[in-house]
């Protein structure tokens, strides 16, 4: 998976030491209530769209950019479902990090849903799935994010548009 240049620059100075990094994810729903998932090329696991904001990039804008790049879908961001520190992870090359993840919920119309495709090398497949019939393997974090998005959507007034 491509590592942003600013992280490569940091890694040149600190090696594999643990980094504290911002992260974003977005659970995108379609008119049928399905969720958009991509099969990650690095792990083979199905997951919601996620990524790292560029320095100075607003989190919602980063979530939209990642979704467009990875899947070809340009959803409407509706709201934030969670902000939390994730578990420390170690990548196959030895790099360690902890993400502070900002999780969004978004929607697209039928025309937007039809545009779903593999957009870059980060995914080997993309698809729409019922939240009750997710493909395997799916990480716990994806299930948690989908549950949080469904809870957010079930709230009164959840149709309010999120401001970028």
Question: How would you describe this structure to a colleague?
Answer:
A hairpin with a 5-residue loop joins strand 2 and strand 3. Strands 1, 4, 5, 6 and 7 form a five-stranded mixed β-sheet that branches. The protein is an alpha+beta fold and 164 residues long. Helices cover 26% and strands 32% of the residues. The C terminus is likely disordered.
Mean pLDDT: 92
Described by strand count, sense and barrel closure, the largest sheet is: 5 strands, mixed
Low-confidence stretches: 160-164
H-E string = HEEEEHEEEHEH
Give the strand tally.
8
Structural class of the secondary elements?
Answer: alpha+beta
Proportion of residues in helical segments: 25-40%
User: Count the helices. How many?
Assistant: 4
Quick one: overall form? globular
Q: Rounded to an integer, what's the Rg over CA atoms?
A: 15 Å
Strand % is: 25-35%
Spatial separation of the terminal alpha carbons: 27 Å
Short summary:
The chain is α+β, with helices and mostly antiparallel strands and 164 residues long. It has helices at 5-14, 59-71, 110-114, 140-154; strands spanning 19-29, 35-40, 46-47, 49-51, 76-85, 89-90, 96-107, 123-129.
List the helices and strands and how they pair.
Elements: H1 5-14, E1 19-29, E2 35-40, E3 46-47, E4 49-51, H2 59-71, E5 76-85, E6 89-90, E7 96-107, H3 110-114, E8 123-129, H4 140-154
Parallel strand pairs: 1-7
Antiparallel strand pairs: 1-4, 2-3, 2-8, 5-7, 6-7
Structure keywords:
164 residues, alpha+beta, five-stranded mixed sheet, 8 strands, 26% helix, globular
């Amino acid at each position: 998976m491509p590592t942003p240049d600013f992280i490569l620059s940091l890694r040149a100075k600190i090696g594999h030491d643990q980094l504290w990094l911002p992260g974003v994810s977005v659970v995108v729903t379609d008119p049928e209530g399905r969720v958009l998932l991509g099969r990650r090329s690095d792990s083979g696991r199905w997951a919601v769209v996620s990524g790292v904001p560029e320095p100075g990039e607003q989190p919602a804008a980063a979530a939209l950019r990642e979704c467009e790049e990875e899947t070809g879908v340009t959803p409407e961001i509706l709201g934030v479902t969670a902000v939390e520190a994730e578990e420390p992870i170690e990548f196959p090359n030895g790099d360690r990090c902890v993400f502070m993840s900002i999780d969004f919920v978004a929607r697209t119309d039928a025309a937007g849903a039809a545009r779903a495709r593999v957009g870059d090398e980060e995914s080997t497949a993309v698809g729409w799935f019922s939240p009750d019939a997710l493909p395997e393997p799916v990480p716990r974090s994806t299930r948690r994010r989908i549950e949080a998005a469904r809870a957010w959507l079930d709230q009164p007034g959840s149709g309010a548009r999120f401001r970028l």
